[in-house]
Amino acid sequence: MQLLKATGPPSNSAEVLITFRRNHPDIKYLRFQWQDYSGVIRGRVVPMITVIAQIAKGGPLKATGLAMAVALTNNLIPSTPLDGQYWLVPDWTTLHPTASPGSAQVMCALDFTVPATGPVSREVCPRHVLNKVLQRAHDGWGLSFLVGFEVEFVIMKANKSTGKMERCSEGWGLFAISGLRDPCYQYVEECVSQLEALGVDFQAIHTEGQRGQYEFALGPRPPLEAVDQLVLVHTYLKDTFARHGYTVTMVPKPVASESLANGQHTHLSLQPASPDLEESFLAGILKRLPALCSFCLPQDVSYERLVPFVAGGNTACWGTETRFAPIRKIEPSRWEIRNIDAMANMYSTLAAIIGAGLCGLVGQEPLLWPDLGDPANKDASRGEPLPTNLEEGLALLDVDEFGLADIIGRPMIDRYVEMKRFELSKLKVQDPDVVKVVAPCTE
Question: What are phi and psi of 44, to 5 degrees?
Answer without folding.
Answer: -120, 140
